[in-house]
Design a protein that fits this description.
Distance between the termini: 51 Å
Shape: globular
Number of helices: 2
Number of strands: 8
Order of helices and strands: EEEEEHEHEE
Largest sheet: 6 strands, antiparallel
Radius of gyration: 23 Å
């Protein structure tokens, strides 16, 4: 049993007629859930902002607000600052580890958003507000 904080709930003991306290331990950390991530980056010719999401989907926008609204409407939410900073640091490290440099312009990573996998639903692909690029081949 964990030594974390606990709460007590009385339980009736049918033999003694007295109430006993049962101690319940709180879990140390919430269970991690699988998730998809999406990123918003800047510094591209086709548009000032690029949204990358699952399955290699890339959409370019001229304004940050359009990029943010697009990805929010697809069910992604912003990570807390610490998690976002960890992801940005990890992706920057991964990009610099590629021998000879990345094949494509990765831009400057601005924001990381996520969507839990169990909440994934097929989203409408009829939003034509951005320029859609072909995914990886």
């Amino acid at each position: 049993m964990s030594t974390g904080s606990s709460c007590k709930r009385p339980r009736d003991d049918p033999d003694s007629g007295e109430s006993a306290a049962v101690v319940y331990a709180e879990p140390p950390h919430p269970k991690p859930t699988p998730m998809n991530i999406a990123t918003i980056s800047s510094g591209f010719e086709k548009g000032d902002f690029l949204v990358r999401e699952e399955k290699g989907m890339r959409v370019y926008f001229d304004f940050f607000e359009e990029a943010f609204n697009y990805i929010s409407n697809r069910g992604y939410i912003r990570m807390n600052k610490d998690d976002e900073d960890d992801w940005i640091q990890l992706m920057n490290h991964i990009h610099t580890s590629v021998k000879g440099g990345m094949r494509y312009n990765t831009g400057k990573l601005l924001m990381v958003m996520y969507r839990p996998i169990e909440d994934n639903k097929e989203h409408s692909k009829t939003d034509n507000s951005g320029v859609v690029a072909d995914g990886p081949k």
